[in-house]
Design brief:
It contains 13 helices and 12 strands. It is α/β, with parallel strands linked by helices. The chain has one domain (2-201, 232-264, 303-327): Rossmann fold, CATH 3.40.50.720.
């Protein structure tokens, strides 16, 4: 199978590309615009594979997308390209509307035209897999507010109630994808995942930000009291789930993917501090303990209280379960960042990207 992956140089997208190339016989065509969050160094380990091709293009550019489909003739699409940082969506929502809504619409239309021209055998096998987030569901009761919070989980039937410009734009794209199936018959699948973490995560996100700030002796900012609860999913577990869905999932179905790891943000930060005490005991000058760096900042507007995924459907129907516990996955993540400080520097200053793109153009 040849899979067209959009956003394959991003955090989750690159994990999908690495998983497919390293663990299957499928081929990948990676289409990525290479915004600030896309980094080719995340794919250095597989970029020489004969089953991997990279195309720098914007999913909002219909002509570029038509050319990609015409040249590469994919058997499936895994659509991960998205603006995904909530804080950035609050400060500048326009980019989220453009990429997540207009970009998804553009890709759907190009994919639909391509699919309609296939012979019947290929048409039956084609899949359009849209990767989304649990944030489209809004939030859940917090244990501090109810005695029965644990009984409330996001299921595939949970009504949408997005809170931020980011989650609203993703909810819109989910609706577009389902409409293109109902109206045009395009064979789609949708997945909604919980918070991902792991290697190659862009440094502005909570876990890598805490790790890198701690190592530099900078403050570790925590919104409000840090009592927001998230379900944490190791990115490589997510990549396995996504490939299973696109190859084995039932057309028209939605699958929620979660890690069974509900944690308060403040507990995540404290766990990271404890791991750093063990794995990086030599602290910056003036730092007594990493926890001393924790600072509480004004909460984000419209901040959701709790996310928690019921992943029983994908477990029961497709046989997927996460392999990593939060403890094992977080330890692997901290160890990876400690061993890959240069990657962090390159992704922030863009040096590897400039060098790699220059060699591609030559």
């Amino acid at each position: 199978m040849k899979i067209l992956v959009t956003g394959g140089a991003g955090f989750i997208g690159s994990a999908v590309v690495r998983h497919v190339i390293n663990n299957t016989q499928d081929s990948i065509v990676n289409v990525d615009k290479l915004t600030y969050a896309g980094n080719l160094e995340s794919l250095a380990s597989i970029e020489s594979s004969e089953r991997y091709q990279f195309v720098q293009a914007d999913i909002c550019d219909a002509n570029a997308m038509r050319e990609v489909f015409t040249i590469h003739q994919p058997d499936a699409v895994m659509h991960l390209a998205a603006e995904s940082h909530v804080d950035r969506s609050i400060d500048g929502p326009a980019a989220f509307i453009e990429t997540n809504i207009v970009g998804t619409y553009t890709l759907l239309e190009v994919a639909r035209s391509y699919w309609q021209e296939m012979d019947e055998e290929r048409k039956q096998k084609f899949r359009f897999h849209h990767i989304s987030t649990d944030e489209v569901y809004g939030d859940l009761p917090h244990p501090a507010e109810t005695d029965d919070a644990s009984g409330h989980l996001f299921t595939e039937a949970t009504a949408y109630e997005p809170s931020s410009p980011y989650s609203a734009s993703k909810a819109s794209s989910d609706h577009l994808v389902r409409a293109w199936m109902r109206t045009y018959g395009l064979p789609v699948l949708v997945t909604n995942c919980s918070n991902n973490y792991g290697p190659y995560h862009f440094p502005e996100k909570l876990i890598p930000l805490v790790i890198l700030n701690a190592l530099e002796g900078k403050s570790l900012p925590v919104y409000g009291k840090g009592d927001q609860i998230r379900d944490w999913l190791f990115v490589e577990d997510h990549a396995r789930a996504l490939h299973k869905v696109v190859t084995e999932g039932v057309v028209g179905e939605t699958y929620n993917i979660g890690g069974h790891n509900e944690k308060r943000n403040i507990d995540v930060v404290r766990t990271l501090c404890a791991l750093l005490e063990e794995l990086a005991p030599k602290k910056p000058e003036g730092v007594g303990s990493y926890e001393d760096l924790i600072s509480y900042v004004t909460d984000r507007p419209g901040h959701d209280l709790r996310y928690a995924i019921d992943a029983s459907k994908i477990e029961n129907e497709l046989g997927w379960t996460p392999e990593e516990t939060f403890e094992s996955g977080l330890r692997k993540t901290v160890q990876w960042y400690l061993s890959n400080i240069k990657w962090c520097q390159h992704v922030q200053d863009g040096s590897y990207q400039r060098e790699r793109l220059g060699s591609i153009k030559e």
